[in-house]
Amino acid sequence: MFTHNLGYPRIGSRRELKKACESFWAGTLTKDELLWETRQLRRRHWQLQREAGIDLIPSNDFSLYDHVLDTALMVGAVPERYHVLADGKAGRELEIYFAMARGVQRPGADIPAMEMTKWFDTNYHYIVPEFRKDQTFRRYSDTVIHAFEDALQMGITTKPVVLGPVSFLLLGKEREAGFDRIDLLDRLLPVYADILRELTARGAGWIQIDEPCLVLDLTGKQQEAYRKAYAWLRKEVPGAQLILATYFDSLGENRSLAAALPVDALHIDVVRGRKDWAEILTDDTFLSAGRILSLGVVNGRNIWKNQYADSLALIAQAEAVLGRDRLWIAPSCSLLHVPCDLDLETDEISLPAEIRDGMAFAKQKLTELVHLKILAFGEPSASGKAILAENEAAVRRRQTSSLIHRPHVKERMEAIQEADFERISVFAERQSIQQAWLQLPAFPTTTIGSFPQTPDIRQLRASFRKGTLSAEGYESGLEKEIAEAIRRQEAIGLDVLVHGEAERNDMVEYFGEQLSGYAFTRNGWVQSYGSRCVKPPVIYGDIERPEPMTVRWATYAQSLTDKPVKGMLTGPVTILQWSFVRDDQPRRDTAFQIALAIRDEVTDLEKAGIRVIQIDEPAIREGLPLRQADRAEYLRWSVDAFRLSTAGVADETQIHTHMCYSEFNDILEAIARMDADVITIETSRSQMELLDAFSEFAYPNEIGPGVYDIHSPRVPSEDEMVQLLHKALNHIPARNLWVNPDCGLKTRRWEETEAALRNMVGAARRLRPVI
Ligand code: GLN
Ligand code: ZN
């Protein structure tokens, strides 16, 4: 019976990896220094896992940038355009590696980076492997071998981790038409066999092969690829001891496939796969093959303490069938997705001790595994009893804490009625009422919310936070910024104005800080991509809005102009998606609690005379469950949460929403059911093509397809935007078309912002005579 870890956060509890990489990119750290520093970090993490008492410690879970990129290098899948960087010389691997991740731009070389996308339903982004029809593979980078050897020098025989060949292919994409990347498997497998053979020869016992794609809906052909790959590897490298790791969901339809793959151990996520994990215990093939089952019982996706009694019940259930020799325990997935160390959180104001007491970060989760092993398999002892009692007490405290449970919030949840989700009139009626009330011109112009966050603005917020600026000083500073933003918008000639969001550093944290039920960490960083980290706030309890959050700024802005000022809020699903969420009630309930708080803000804004209110939901799509079968339910409650937050207003009040991604096809029905009077979306980079779906679906409400890309400082011309608008008019009735940029402008400078918006307003005006 082993405890093992699937992966440890790479970034470091003090974000050492971030600092080292960024210094190296900036030229202030040499290559040798980078390698030395990151080696120390890796070693520290091994040491820490050894001290925690983990039986099998992973290696090659570390990465300088991304493990999928590492895999591409391991098998030599380096796209042609980077080959010039090698320049016929050896030792250029690191330069090529970072060029693939980030692109290079210097005299003599201008090569774009590879694409990046979300790792399953996490907030981690990986580099998407690129494949060509004539793709070949070879052993290229030996990081996996070096890491194993390095740990061996410390006296630790690690469990090397590699991303499996089938998932590697499935997670990539074809760079040209005319082939299916899964057909490259035959060419890829020999490289894997070679690596497994060498690791085994150098003394590796267990090797972990990650095949997370086994939790997705697979086609027959993809399933066949799994059978073929593992049968072949087994035959080629009979001596390698393989643990096949799956995570992020249950195996579902792929259970018998996974159970029959000829490996030595299978890891399953029993947190996400809680519903049906135990079916593996009745799978005859799995049972008769004598394989080990690794139970992922400690949640690798959130920051709450494990409930030992609960985990012990699962372990006992598996032990009854398999016996202890065929049973391991582990985190549900790599700990990459949680922060490093709760011990660093000592600020009681942002994280009350009572809440902290219910939490566990990566380091604490290792201890939980060791505790579970002692409790499940150790001799009964006084210390075991104490461990269990302490855990049970912590669980009970969470169940009864008055910080967490607010009876009146629960009462209000109970009292929600059907009518609370419905606007008074249907869209067609609201549209004419709003037209009469707002008196906007055809093709109204607006922006998405934020304006340039100048150094002055950042300074203002920072000094206020530090306490070196008084509340009055801060407020008058903000008012000055708002007045300036309003003045500029009027000069540009925009129709619906915004206050500019100068008071916000982040669209979720800003609201979290004003809601009860939220806590914040100082060092709770989680890697998002490369050296970038996020620090999600923590929803620990019932959510409530003690007082208005944005009304003051919106009404001040409105007092300065006759044009409508758009109130600006973040939607309940986005707030949920970008936080760590309590695990003691369904996500839907937490979303509804947030929705009620936003609803109060919406009605307060309306009362204060704000006639247009935007509720951003850029994260609805990323919350989609991995499996098709689970999506309808998620979309039902997430759209309901949006409706609950918006439906409290009069017909006159115009509700906007904003989303910034380029794929709507599969969720258009849900988007339509949100029933926002206006939706603004990112479209300029796709040349309005994504409106095809909207017109085919006959999307009924008003739309503002972004007419320029805010990610670039480039100022688009009036002509360009007129052309895009003509394209949009092929899809959208003129009465429904808005004119706006793709997203918020906070990363831009005023200079280019003003120039671009002036051209945008010019473009809208040129179109107006059309109707
Ligand atoms: N209102 C936000 C802004 O303008 C929207 C940000 C987003 O869509 N991610 O910054
Ligand atoms: Zn956006």
TrEMBL record:
Pathway: Amino-acid biosynthesis; L-methionine biosynthesis via de novo pathway; L-methionine from L-homocysteine (MetE route): step 1/1. The keyword Heme does not apply. L-methionine binds at residues 448-450, 501, 616. GO terms for molecular function: 5-methyltetrahydropteroyltriglutamate-homocysteine S-methyltransferase activity; zinc ion binding. Zn(2+) 1 binds at residues 660, 682, 743. 5-methyltetrahydropteroyltri-L-glutamate binds at residues 15-18, 118, 123, 532-533, 578, 622. GO terms for biological process: L-methionine biosynthetic process; methylation. NCBIfam families: met_syn_B12ind, PRK05222.1. This is 5-methyltetrahydropteroyltriglutamate--homocysteine methyltransferase. Residues 3-320 form the Cobalamin-independent methionine synthase MetE N-terminal domain. Zn(2+) 2 binds at residue 658. The gene is metE. Its EC number is 2.1.1.14. Residues 443-765 form the Cobalamin-independent methionine synthase MetE C-terminal/archaeal domain. Catalyzes the transfer of a methyl group from 5-methyltetrahydrofolate to homocysteine resulting in methionine formation. The active site is at residue 711.
